[in-house]
Design a protein that fits this description.
With 284 residues, this protein is of the alpha+beta class. Helix content is 38%, strand content 23%.
Length: 284
């Protein structure tokens, strides 16, 4: 929209310049005339280039630029007739400048879209990337579990000896290494997954495996699937969100954003193919 406004301002200034100076009988084409013509043509070329670079071409913008280019050609032709009636030179006049600028703008509505189709490489959207990733799902895993193997440890034993001189038995402590079995974890690969102790589930809703949706406009997250319900927050344009459910008519979709769960209007969403299998969610 800003580029369209700039292009319109340049076109209006260019047309006013050639009309006023022709009516004031200024025959010589100056630097200001050429600068305004160049600015008008460049502004519309930039506008068409931006429109062609988008995923979907803006047909209304292209048609509008084409009509405006033809209008500039018409104004230039009228100025050329006035200059011819006054006996001015045939070329290098403001009438010819207007005809040339308008023709360049009109021709750009055909040349720029064809060039964009040939050279511009489309950028994949987040939904397309997610769909490709879903086709390469890998299943199966192995878990590492601990098993017990013997490990030698040393234990101390007491030895009793007799004093050879007095004949009195004495006790001396000696350390004798003895092998005993002590658990030692070793890693072995088995086909058994980890097992966990079960616990009593809490009475909270469990979200299903989500699909992806792309927000086309700034979209309200509402507490219920209707446009009269409370607005919880606004999701910005271009955001990719997770979809967990839908209503019976598949017109509202249940999602969460920034730790807020609620409903969004499907009219302003671009959904992935997986969203067709989302379960119907009752309004709680």
């Amino acid at each position: 929209m800003p580029n369209l406004l700039i292009a319109m301002i340049c076109a209006v200034l260019f047309l006013l310049n050639i009309v006023i100076k022709t009516l004031l009988r200024k025959e010589r084409v100056g630097f200001i005339d050429m600068l305004l013509a160049l600015a008008a043509a460049a502004a519309f070329v930039m506008l068409l280039t931006e429109s062609a670079a988008q995923d979907s071409s803006d047909t209304q913008t292209t048609q509008f630029v084409l009509l405006l280019g033809l209008a500039i050609v018409g104004v230039g032709a009228i100025m050329k007739v006035v200059e011819w009636a006054r006996g001015w030179k045939q070329f290098g006049t403001r009438g010819m400048l207007g005809i040339g600028t308008g023709a360049l703008i009109a021709l750009s509505t055909f040349s720029i879209p064809m060039t964009a189709e040939t050279f511009i490489i489309p950028t994949p959207t987040p939904i397309q990337v997610a769909q490709v990733s879903a086709q390469t799902d890998v299943s199966g895993a192995s878990a590492v579990v601990a098993t017990n193997t013997p490990r030698p440890t040393a234990t101390s034993t007491d030895a009793t000896s007799t004093n050879a001189i007095n004949g009195v038995p004495t006790t001396t402590a000696t350390t004798t290494p003895t092998l005993t079995s002590t658990p030692r974890p070793t890693a072995t690969i088995t086909a058994t997954r980890w097992t966990f102790a079960t616990r009593t589930p809490l009475p909270t809703a469990t979200l299903v495996t989500p699909c992806l949706g792309s927000v086309d406009n700034n979209l309200r997250l509402r507490s219920e699937p209707n446009r009269e319900s409370e607005t919880l927050l606004v999701i910005p344009f271009g955001t990719t969100i997770m979809i967990y459910g839908r209503n019976d008519a598949s017109t509202w979709w249940y999602t969460d954003y920034e730790e807020q769960e609620g409903w969004v209007d499907g009219e302003f969403l671009t959904l992935s193919a997986a969203c067709a299998g989302m379960p119907v969610r009752a309004n709680e």
